[in-house]
């Protein structure tokens, strides 16, 4: 992961621009296809959890898995290794996406990035308020952040089903919105879902970050060299009481965006491109299989749990569109922002509806928010229900919008 040469800005080179566009196309393609795989994994989890073999669903994920290094033995459930270790790679890709977008993407310029930023904040604030309007009671209020995130894979996958009639700038707006959603979700997890912080753990994490930066200065280009620093950062976060998956975000954000010469692919693009298919086709479906299995027969929607389901579902399918569309309208009307070429208000409505597809990050936050299995199952059910309604509404509106676009292009 070689660092950049001093005094040279390679981001303006034709090679870099071409490579960035190719990376964006590759990203959209992988996300579109992985949305189908993710859906299949979620459906398989639901079928498994409601089948005659339902008792084996939790038994499998509760199996102990041991990590042994000499005298040191670390034992955790398979569920832990998926949610707290494997998902770190997911967050590493998220961190690199953010790093790349800030450097040369939709977030690199104030006038380009401000509109999706404001739309994303609207899409976070309104769902949170809707959820809290149903769940202000003690214990249930912890789930306020569950409906604030957008699932990139599902949203882009649904958009791909609508065909090439959807303008490219609509896809870019949705991608930028979802990435900003991820940034906000990461900050929410770090600020609101951590407790009992241990400063010694932070010291260990800082040591790991400094080691990674030192390797970069030495010009170590092999990704394998960074496994040890990555493990140190992960272990430090775990010791500190911060969710260890956030180590992936930190490491992604410090990945270099420039390389030694215009002919060499920058590390942030090279590593993200290599990991992205593994995350999209492997890690996210495994996460869905391990966490989307809600048993409808044993689920108790009573004692307040029904309001968790209602709050999450309504916040996703109604709060997200209202927040995204409303914030975009205010930004254009009052803030001086402008819609990109070919992005109409019908396209913004489509983006708002698809933003209500929560799933991966929403389920992840739900598991941080609730220790009570009854509330957790109710929240997961709300995520699935709200996301399903959002998909249905998005496909319905999108089909009409795409047909209108084809007529306009034909005319």
Could you give a short description of this structure?
This protein has 411 residues and is mainly α. Helices cover 69% and strands 3% of the residues.
Describe the structure.
The chain is an all-alpha fold. It is 69% helix and 3% strand. Strand 1 (64-69) and strand 2 form a beta hairpin. The relative contact order is 0.18.
Give me some keywords for this one:
411 residues, disordered N terminus, 3% strand, single chain, 2 strands, globular, mainly alpha
Largest sheet: 2 strands, antiparallel
Give, in order, the helices and strands: HHEEHHHHHHHHHHHH
Count of runs of 4 or more consecutive helical residues:
14
The proportion of residues forming helix, as a percent range, comes to 55-70%
Tell me the layout of helices and strands:
Layout: H1 14-49, H2 54-61, E1 64-69, E2 72-77, H3 78-104, H4 110-134, H5 152-161, H6 168-192, H7 199-218, H8 227-240, H9 246-253, H10 267-291, H11 305-333, H12 345-354, H13 360-369, H14 373-410
């Amino acid at each position: 992961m070689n660092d950049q040469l001093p005094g040279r800005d390679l981001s303006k080179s034709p090679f870099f621009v071409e490579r960035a566009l190719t990376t964006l196309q590759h990203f959209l393609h992988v996300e579109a296809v992985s949305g189908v795989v993710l859906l299949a994994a979620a459906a398989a989890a639901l079928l498994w959890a409601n089948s005659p073999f339902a008792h084996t669903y939790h038994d499998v994920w509760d199996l102990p898995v041991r990590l042994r290094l000499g005298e040191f033995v670390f034992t955790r459930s398979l569920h832990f290794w998926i949610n707290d270790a494997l998902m770190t790679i997911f967050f590493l890709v998220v961190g690199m996406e953010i790093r790349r977008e800030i450097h040369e993407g939709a977030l690199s310029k104030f006038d380009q990035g401000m509109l999706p930023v404001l739309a994303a904040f609207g899409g976070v604030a309104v769902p949170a308020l809707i959820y809290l309007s149903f769940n202000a009671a003690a214990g249930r209020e912890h789930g306020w952040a569950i409906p604030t995130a957008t699932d990139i894979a599902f949203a882009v996958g649904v958009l791909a089903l609508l065909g090439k009639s959807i303008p490219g700038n609509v896809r870019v707006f949705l991608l930028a919105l979802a990435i900003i959603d991820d940034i906000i979700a990461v900050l929410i997890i770090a600020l609101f879902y951590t407790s009992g912080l241990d400063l010694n753990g932070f010291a260990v994490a800082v040591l790991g970050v400094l080691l990674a930066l030192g390797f970069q200065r030495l010009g170590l280009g092999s990704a394998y060299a960074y496994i040890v620093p990555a493990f140190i950062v992960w272990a430090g976060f775990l010791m500190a009481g911060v969710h260890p998956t956030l180590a992936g975000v930190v490491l992604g954000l410090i990945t270099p965006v420039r390389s030694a010469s215009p002919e060499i692919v920058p590390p942030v693009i090279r590593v993200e491109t290599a990991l992205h298919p593994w995350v999209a086709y492997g890690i996210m479906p495994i996460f869905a299989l391990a966490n989307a299995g809600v048993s409808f027969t044993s689920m108790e929607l009573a004692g307040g749990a029904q309001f968790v389901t209602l709050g999450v579902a309504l916040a996703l399918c109604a709060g997200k569109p209202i927040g995204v569309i409303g914030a975009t309208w205010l930004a254009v009307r009052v803030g001086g922002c402008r819609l990109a070429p070919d992005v109409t208000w019908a396209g913004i409505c489509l983006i708002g509806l698809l933003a209500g597809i929560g799933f991966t990050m929403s389920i992840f936050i739900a598991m941080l928010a609730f220790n009570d299995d009854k509330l957790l199952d109710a929240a997961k059910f709300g995520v699935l229900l709200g996301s399903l309604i959002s998909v249905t509404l998005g496909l319905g509106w999108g089909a009409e919008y795409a047909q209108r676009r084809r007529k306009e292009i034909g005319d």
